[in-house]
């Protein structure tokens, strides 16, 4: 039985797909068109550690940095940012080469590079201490940063992160997802909207949130990554969850682990409880959100935020 992770294995495979483009491949938007369509009113772009970083800042108060997951973008946090910015200064950014950031001219997508990008972004904004919130694979650089920069991390929220290699039973996939993956193999150089729609549906409990606009966003932004196959290969080569346990052990900041009860990607039993055990912090809590899937930020944002708010208020005093 072949087993891989939908959020990592299948999607990393998407990045490393052949550069051969089928004749029926849809036209891709250039970067100018993508910025016009997907940048926010408060979007900013700056060069940090040699690459272009897309970021957005809104609100006033204690600083909170939001780190998105695989093949998403800072838009993954739209609902969270709108609510959190009423009380906090919310910073979010696209992890290169996702969203509108990058690619890295040096082909550097290592964790060390991602730590330097976070340092550079927060230095640019003159923010010395802040709370980090990360979801899914965003937990990998967030945990590494918290372990390496304890003086800067005031508190940490890790949501549905992988504690080690993630495995997913392909035989247990929904028939529609299997069909989308089979169809996708017929044109190795690009992905149809239905491919991304089924990936998204596999990671939520409420399908109403998977709108045509969201599917098109994922299609357009992820098509950008396929222009140069070398980018995908560099990302895949630098993406490993083997370091996660050591990084978790080294974390000293107060930490809230926020888990979805219906996360079949990074499960509560395999990853959530193990993360709680491994965490080096003496101030650590595991909270479970019922009826929510792996992509918590847009599957159950309000119920998730209700669990996060008391932690933020205690850590920041606001």
Automatic annotation (TrEMBL):
Protein keywords: Hydrolase, Signal
Leader sequence segment: 1-22
Domain of life of the native organism: Bacteria
GO molecular function, one term: hydrolase activity
Residue ranges annotated for the AB hydrolase-1 domain, each copy included: 62-286
SUPFAM superfamilies, alphabetized: alpha/beta-Hydrolases
PANTHER family xrefs: ALPHA/BETA-HYDROLASES SUPERFAMILY PROTEIN (PTHR46438), LIPASE-RELATED (PTHR46438:SF11)
Record-given protein name: Alpha/beta hydrolase
Organism: Novosphingobium barchaimii LL02
